[in-house]
Amino acid sequence: MSGVEKLVILLVAVVTVCAAVWPIPYRRFDSRPKTDAFCQALYPFCPTGHPDGSMPKMMDSDVVEVFSMKAPVWEFKFGDLLAHFDIIHDAIGFRNNRTGLNYTMEWYELFQLFNCTFGHVLTDMDPPLWCNQGAACLYDGIDDLHWSQNGSLVKVAEISGKVFNELADWVHTDNNTGIYYETWMVRNSTGPDSKLWFEAFDCASFVIRTFNKLGDLGAKFNTSVQTNYTKITLFSDQPVHLGNTSTIFGPKGNKTLATEIRTFYEHFQAHQPFPSLLKSMLEAFDTIVLEKKWYFFYNFEYWFLPMKEPFLKLTYEEVPLPGRKEVTLA
Ligand SMILES: *[C@@H]1O[C@H](CO)[C@@H](O)[C@H](O)[C@H]1NC(C)=O
Ligand SMILES: *[C@@H]1O[C@H](CO)[C@@H](O)[C@H](O)[C@H]1NC(C)=O
Ligand SMILES: *[C@@H]1O[C@H](CO)[C@@H](O)[C@H](O)[C@H]1NC(C)=O
Ligand SMILES: *[C@@H]1O[C@H](CO)[C@@H](O)[C@H](O)[C@H]1NC(C)=O
Ligand SMILES: *[C@@H]1O[C@H](CO)[C@@H](O)[C@H](O)[C@H]1NC(C)=O
Ligand SMILES: *[C@@H]1O[C@H](CO)[C@@H](O)[C@H](O)[C@H]1NC(C)=O
Ligand SMILES: *[C@@H]1O[C@H](CO)[C@@H](O)[C@H](O)[C@H]1NC(C)=O
Ligand SMILES: *[C@@H]1O[C@H](CO)[C@@H](O)[C@H](O)[C@H]1NC(C)=O
Ligand SMILES: *[C@@H]1O[C@H](CO)[C@@H](O)[C@H](O)[C@H]1NC(C)=O
Ligand SMILES: *[C@@H]1O[C@H](CO)[C@@H](O)[C@H](O)[C@H]1NC(C)=O
């Protein structure tokens, strides 16, 4: 190999390492691991779901209606206290016109939202423990009142039974490989073209993914329907990769960094009494706003976020249904 060739290879290697691809792709797994025995659901996951997540089998010639369904999250889980936060849960409904049977499909946290958002700090030695799995749940029936009273239930497409069955295969693969829930989206700034560092992976991203898959399978959507989704965004300058649990908290890890991460997550321990939760949330506010630090967990790895204004924002933005023609202004 000539010196020039070596130099070219070296340069290519340097560029590959330095030019991180943003957003960082959400990691897919070969299969879903067992959850840690510590993780216990306050509300059981998918209590009325089909055993093993089996999907109903349709006849190829069936006509299946598809619905976009939305409901405020906090209302039905935590009472009115948090109802004023505009956090909307998204789901998909299906109705077989031949049988008249209908189904609800949603993707959500196995151990509730707070557990997916913050890790548990159990001792002053161990790394935070994450109960952050999320999964798809399909059950019989659509509770029209639940979705339409304070949210919405809108028909968005009609598909064939054949397309539904193809979608069912995809849902199983997606469910076995996309195993963890990610609450936050992370961007560089509020502008629409701002750099996206990390994508969320939540109930809404599942619905968007599924609609796009249906579009790929040939479904025609009623693109007059406007579909908006909740986004919870953190704002930071370019994130810095720190490592995973073993490289940070293992024997060769950086003890200072390990302590900083534990201290950060200690602020967000839901199982403490309310006054101390409030106190630590205020401390967290100091860390985030005054020191501009966030230790972000993504793909089971930690990243440092140099936080900046407006720090955190909740928005309700449109992601159009597949097939909408771009309107170009003259
Ligand atoms: C979160 O996980 C912990 C530990 O398993 C569990 O006790 C708690 O009920 C879960 N849910 C919430 C909302 O904290
Ligand atoms: C997705 O995975 C979860 C967790 O293993 C399981 O309970 C659920 O039935 C699966 N859902 C589908 C639609 O396969
Ligand atoms: C399916 O059933 C609904 C409700 O009965 C009806 O509005 C719709 O026209 C039907 N679609 C087809 C293609 O049969
Ligand atoms: C779903 O089925 C139930 C029970 O038959 C019915 O009450 C409800 O109106 C149906 N909803 C939709 C959107 O098809
Ligand atoms: C809709 O909101 C009202 C007022 O907050 C509440 O009383 C009602 O139970 C809600 N309906 C559903 C289906 O959650
Ligand atoms: C991030 O946003 C800042 C302004 O807040 C801008 O100066 C900078 O170029 C942006 N960086 C990237 C990588 O987009
Ligand atoms: C498409 O959606 C619009 C807006 O919700 C609605 O007015 C219209 O009736 C729908 N068209 C069909 C064919 O369902
Ligand atoms: C953690 O990162 C190291 C170095 O990149 C890698 O060798 C190891 O397999 C990772 N551990 C896990 C559990 O992913
Ligand atoms: C260890 O982590 C601290 C805090 O993040 C950092 O300031 C320091 O440079 C790190 N030390 C090494 C050897 O990487
Ligand atoms: C839906 O999103 C669009 C564009 O993102 C926005 O203009 C509109 O106000 C949103 N609708 C609601 C009800 O928030």
Automatic annotation (TrEMBL):
GO cellular component term, pick one: lysosomal membrane
Higher taxonomy: Eukaryota, Metazoa, Chordata, Cephalochordata, Leptocardii
Catalysed transformations (reactions): 2 1-octadecanoyl-sn-glycero-3-phospho-(1'-sn-glycerol) = 1-octadecanoyl-sn-glycero-3-phospho-(3'-octadecanoyl-1'-sn-glycerol) + sn-glycero-3-phospho-(1'-sn-glycerol); 2 1-tetradecanoyl-sn-glycero-3-phospho-(1'-sn-glycerol) = 1-tetradecanoyl-sn-glycero-3-phospho-(3'-tetradecanoyl-1'-sn-glycerol) + sn-glycero-3-phospho-(1'-sn-glycerol); S-hexadecanoyl-L-cysteinyl-[protein] + H2O = L-cysteinyl-[protein] + hexadecanoate + H(+); 2 1-hexadecanoyl-sn-glycero-3-phospho-(1'-sn-glycerol) = 1-hexadecanoyl-sn-glycero-3-phospho-(3'-hexadecanoyl-1'-sn-glycerol) + sn-glycero-3-phospho-(1'-sn-glycerol)
Job of this protein: Catalyzes the synthesis of bis(monoacylglycero)phosphate (BMP) via transacylation of 2 molecules of lysophosphatidylglycerol (LPG). BMP also known as lysobisphosphatidic acid plays a key role in the formation of intraluminal vesicles and in maintaining intracellular cholesterol homeostasis. Can use only LPG as the exclusive lysophospholipid acyl donor for base exchange and displays BMP synthase activity towards various LPGs (LPG 14:0, LPG 16:0, LPG 18:0, LPG 18:1) with a higher preference for longer chain lengths. Exhibits palmitoyl protein thioesterase (S-depalmitoylation) activity in vitro and most likely plays a role in protein S-depalmitoylation.
One example of a Gene Ontology biological process annotation: lysosome organization
Family named by the database record: Belongs to the CLN5 family.
N-terminal signal peptide: 1-19
UniProt keyword terms in alphabetical order: Glycoprotein, Signal
InterPro entries, per the entry: CLN5 (IPR026138)
GO molecular function: hydrolase activity, acting on glycosyl bonds; palmitoyl-(protein) hydrolase activity
UniProt name for this protein: Bis(monoacylglycero)phosphate synthase CLN5
PANTHER family from the UniProt entry: CEROID-LIPOFUSCINOSIS NEURONAL PROTEIN 5 (PTHR15380:SF2), CEROID-LIPOFUSCINOSIS, NEURONAL 5 (PTHR15380)
Entry coiled-coil feature ranges: none
